Amino acid sequence: MHSQIQPVTSQGRIQLLDLLRGFALFGILMVNMPLFNNPHTIIFGNYSIWTDETSQQALWFIRFLFEGKFYILFSLLFGMGFQLFLQKADENGLLLKTYRRRLLILLLIGALHVVLLWVGDILVWYALFGLLMTVFRKKSNRTLLKWSIGFLSIPIVLTFLMLLMGFISGNIPEAAEQMAESFKQQHQFRQQISAQAYETYATGTFTQIVAFRLLEYSQLLPGLFFFYPNTIAMFLLGMVFIRKGYIIQPEAHATFYRRMLAIGLPIGLLGSFAMAQIIKGTDPTQLSWLALLQMAGHSIGGVFLGLSYMCLIAFWMQKQILQALKHAIGCAGRMALSNYLMQSVIVTTLAFSYGFGLYGKISPLHGIFLTVLIYVFQLFFSVIWLSKFKYGPMEWLWRSLTYGRKFALKKE
User: Fold this and answer.
1) Domain span holding position 387
2) pLDDT tens string 376-393
3) Is 328 part of any domain?
4) What is the DSSP string of 220-278?
5) Which of 98-107, 268-277, 281-290, 345-354 has the least mean pLDDT?
6) Whole-model pTM?
7) Residue 256 lies in a domain
8) What total number of domains does the chain contain?
9) What are the CB-based long-range contacts (under 8 Å, 24+) for 205-210?
10) Does residue 187 lie within any of the structural domains?
């Protein structure tokens, strides 16, 4: 039925893509670990119960080097995969149909991930935005770059407009009073949600946890405007990188990587430092112009530092050092979907009531050590699994459903 559209074989894989996916898995888990163990209200301000200095320093470390960088890298990789898929032969016009079916299956996996495991899923939005990407498939590189910059500016512009409206309203006594009351109510609501989360996830039944998780998920929907425009921007940039050959032949584009690193690393470090510092001292009940600098640091700093990580990985790939580690990270990247979902299974089992009930008891510092431990386990698991099987378990399922036939899983 779909004989003209074939999946990539293990021999046809791009080493740098697998290495970047495997590396991104570590950063994604590092950022997600505090969110697995705390209410998602901590995204909106300092609502964490971990207020001691050691925990604050651990959270600062995560924000500075990880937060806002690795979902950027993952999004970039998704855009690259989209472009690679589009470059396949399409003799019978099946390409887009197969691609859309592939994303609808991913959407279903993501929805099940939200309902059954964790509220912080990214697969649902990747699938939805991936469907949007078909609009850009025939656009020029210049057009894609313009749209990418436009999407990156959306969170900053929206934050500026909110602050401007707040400034104007602040000069009108009645409006200022209403605005202050609104912020106070939001703060109280988030405190209430936080308290309910600690109780529900630690002691509630599975049904109660699912119901509360869906409530939390609804509270994250404003992120559609402040978080996900960067995701779409990286999708588009990833398409350009594949077209330019930066990923397929990194050794031929060493100048590009050196320039990107020279520009991106200082900007990324400076922006990320500003973001981490501002969050540490921000009062979530106050509307401040520092929020604009924080958003700029998150968006611009996160993008440039994420791209700098990509450059460093590209340089490492071309060096004959730590080959065993490189192989293990590449294996983890080959089964990135399986490992991403496995992270949710492991940590929610540790945290939620139907497992070990440690929700709210894993400090940020302990979470960093736990992240390293889980990731090392996944490296070993991925190497062993792929020594016996052709694909990761979820990759095999996704691939078989996409192409409408059962692929051989075990190696002969």
Assistant:
1) 10-403
2) 999 999 999 999 999 999
3) yes
4) TTTHHHHTHHHHHHHHHHHHHHHHHTTTTSGGGGHHHHHHHHHHHHHHHHHHHHHHHHH
5) 281-290
6) 0.89
7) yes
8) 1
9) 205/353, 206/354, 209/352, 209/353, 209/354, 210/115, 210/116
10) yes
